Amino acid sequence: MKIIKSTLVAGLISILSIFSANAEKVKIGDPGWTGATAIANLLAAVVIDKMGGEAELVPGNNTAIYAAIDRGKGEIDVHPDIWLPNQEAYTNDLVPKGTLKLSSKPYEGNQGYCVSQQFAKKMNITAIEDLARPEVVKAMDSDGNGKGEFWIGADGWASANVNQVKLRDYGLYDAGIEAVRAAEAVKNARVLDSIKKGEGYAFYCYKPHAIWGMADVVMLTEPKYDPAKYKMIQPKADADWYKKSYVASKDALKQIPNRLGYFFRESITSDCRILQEFSINS
After folding, report:
1. Hey, which residues does 82 pair with through a beta bridge?
2. CB within 8 Å of 138: residues ≥ 6 apart
3. Residue ranges per domain, the chain?
4. What is the C-alpha separation between 159 and 111, in angstroms, rounded?
5. How far is it, in rounded angstroms, from Cα 239 to Cα 245?
6. Radius of gyration, CA atoms only, the chain
7. Tens-place pLDDT, residues 201-220
8. What 3-state class would DSSP assign to 20?
């Protein structure tokens, strides 16, 4: 993770060296997860403090942010934190249309499923299939409904849809696990609370992310990536996506380093000098 951070910072420093101080306004989408919010604020600080422009953070889920960028009306200029292939349902549509431009300098990430180290040690949990054991499910049931809680992401996240399918195809629903969608801040609070109370809790996790500094957590192993067992269809592509999808292996981007980056409105090259130069040099 140190390499990831160093690469990002170095990239920003090199970008900053080319800008002048003409005041222009950049609207940066904030999809709400911790990493994206941090990057959005960092980009805003770069625009304001180092480039002499103005910046505004615009909250919204991925669907809203991509739609705003696609309209090209200046509602949102930048998506700060793109995970591929999770969000390819959007990028495969908009990039060929010419309304989005992907940064040429992505950086690495990783994603999977985590539990606290405390819980993993207590219950001897190392792999995703361990969560299907009856005693583990029981330990993850905090509200007494007989179901073990598993946070899969927030509403509007493409990754949450993948996780919803994965839990089904890993057999976790049949074992008594229930998927929970909620804001990431709610998840973070629940992780810390579960550790304090000595309770079990599982959640979708990724790197880089603040949770690795907030709590002692461990990422569980999954079956090795198998393209024959990874057929994900997002709601944008098919209303019957859940039934038609099948995901029972590790994500490809865990075998091939994740590609994350900034997305820009393609039309910025004609109406915003700051983002024009930013897109060329990022």
Report:
1. 261
2. 148
3. 2-108+258-281, 110-254
4. 10
5. 11
6. 20
7. 999 998 777 788 888 999 99
8. coil
Give CA–CA dist 164/254, Å, rounded: 18
pLDDT tens for 237-259 read 899 999 999 999 988 653 333 44
Q: What share of the chain is helix, strand, coil (3-state, %, to 5)?
A: 45, 20, 35
CA–CA distance from 1 to each of 129, 179, 207 (Å)? 26, 28, 7
The pTM of the full predicted model, rounded to 2 decimals, is 0.66
Q: What is the CATH number of domain 110-254?
A: 3.40.190.100
Please determine whether the domains at 2-108+258-281 and 110-254 fall in the same fold group of CATH.
yes
The DSSP-derived string for 25-58 is EEEEEE-SSHHHHHHHHHHHHIIIIIT--EEEEE
69 contacts 98 by C-beta, under 8 angstroms? no
CATH T-level topology, domain 2-108+258-281:
D-Maltodextrin-Binding Protein; domain 2 (3.40.190)
pLDDT digits (tens, 9 = 90+) for 100-137: 888 776 666 678 999 999 999 999 999 999 999 999 99
| Alpha helices (H) in the chain, listed in sequence order | 2-16, 34-45, 62-71, 88-97, 117-123, 134-139, 158-169, 172-175, 184-197, 211-214, 241-244, 268-271, 273-281
